[in-house]
Amino acid sequence: MNQHATAFKPSLRLIDATMIVAGSMIGSGIFIVSTDIVRNVGSAGWLIVVWVLSGIMTVVAAISYGEMSGMFPRAGGQYVYLKEAFNPLFGFLYGWSSFTVIQTATIAAVAVAFSRFTAYIVPGVGETVFLFSLGNFHISAAQILAIALIIFLTYTNTRGIRGGKIIQTTFTSVKLFSLFGLIVLGFLVVKHNFWDENWQTGFHAVQLEKSAGSFVKNGNWFPISGTILIGAIAASMVGSLFSSDAWNNVTFIAAEIKNPKRNIGLSLFFGTLTVCIIYIVTNLMYLYVLPLHEIAFPGGDRVAVAASNAIFGKAGAVIIAAMIMVSTFGCNNGLILAGARVYYTMAKDGLFFRKSGILNKKAVPEWALWAQAIVASLLCLSGGYNDLLDMIAFVVVIFYVLTIIGIFVLRKTRPEMSRPYKAYGYPFLPALYICMGCIFCIFLIIFKPVYTLWGLGIVLAGIPVYFITIQARKTNHRSNEF
């Protein structure tokens, strides 16, 4: 009896694909990162501008990807697009970066966020509860819970696409409804609002003085403009872009979507537009219920908890913790479900572990799922997942820019190919994203060089790995001929 499927089963509808886009985007970022944005730009106007710019970049990139998804509606998504537009090396570098940092580090960061907020309800799983210590190395209950979450969701997804689809649709629906409810209640229920007070800051950008390399609560604010302002916006967008990322995960599972040439492009547009609008309105709600200084310095740097406390009183922390648990649970399910499909396609091309290219009897790449889980779990133990955000954002935007450049390349090199869905606003909107993405990366290197250069180093480290892999494949092929 055959224990392995030979192909993916197209079983996801447009609504399922849209839920994967939205569910993968909404994790913990929207509940946290506005704090750092306000510390960088210091005004209500620029807080909203940062989220609007991130939304524009996200939606423009998503609708540009729609053209690629119609041309190459198969598993692997961005890996396939880069390989077809340029050459296999570019595709491999994306897959390599995804396995070593983009997908796996994001899974780890979201899992740890789940643990952190679970500790609001169950203090015994907090980050200060150490289960093992060896010198300066500690393993906390929060890290173990994060790993347990990754293992559970990985196991669920090895049982077939149907279970992952049910989890994704259910949890995404709940968190969209919860966020919408929080926004509405914020505007309707809060006893005292700070709207007029906060908007007095307008677009007068100010930045907090730094001391010993960190922001000080009682420090002095000073006006910023020009290059410093652009740098502050770029640094701020690390968080907002990270919060808006992972929308492209739906392209990884193209082979499992019904009518992918139509539905992937539509799901990218509907999913990203919905989430970006919700993010902007959520920040408007923060400005309504909290003074700007409290957005910059909420207790524990958790702005959503402060807002929820203002709306619901003492129960606010528990309510928002439950919302983030639901949000991060669903987000990680989407990340885990989609990521392994990239490694499956790479393995089929002879560029990844051979077992990653085998489907189990449920028609999912089980070995690739578990390999991804192991790397993500190790990153949970590293304790450095917060520092990885700069690196993730930098690497992700580099590959987004390259992929959108690929649209221009393919329009010239393969004009005869069927394009059931063309990039809206071509060539202006795709070119706008390329310019914005390059500016973002340049200023990130200038203002946050340490982790961005580490990210670039990880990408470049994939070049010798690629040629070693190619040589090994040639050697094995020669051996099989004799």
How is this structure best described in words?
Its main location: membrane. It is found in: Membrane. Keywords: Membrane, Transmembrane, Transmembrane helix. InterPro entries: AA/rel_permease1, AminoAcid_Transporter. This is Amino acid permease. The protein contains 18 helices and 6 strands. It has a single domain, classed as Amino acid/polyamine transporter I. The chain has 482 residues and is mainly alpha-helical.
| CATH top level class name | Mainly Alpha
Per CATH, the architecture is Up-down Bundle
Strand content: under 5%
* Quantity of strands, as a count: 6
Secondary-structure content class: mainly alpha
For this structure, the CATH topology is Amino acid/polyamine transporter I
Poorly predicted runs: 211-218
InterPro entries: AA/rel_permease1, AminoAcid_Transporter
Subcellular location: Membrane
Protein name: Amino acid permease
GO molecular function, one term: L-amino acid transmembrane transporter activity
Give descriptors for this structure.
18 helices, mainly alpha, 6 strands, two-stranded antiparallel sheet, 482 residues
In short:
The protein has helices at 14-25, 34-41, 44-71, 78-85, 88-121, 141-158, 161-189, 195-199, 226-243, 249-252, 260-289, 292-296, 303-312, 316-348, 366-382, 388-413, 428-447, 449-481, and strands spanning 130-134, 137-140, 206-208, 210-211, 214-215, 221-223.
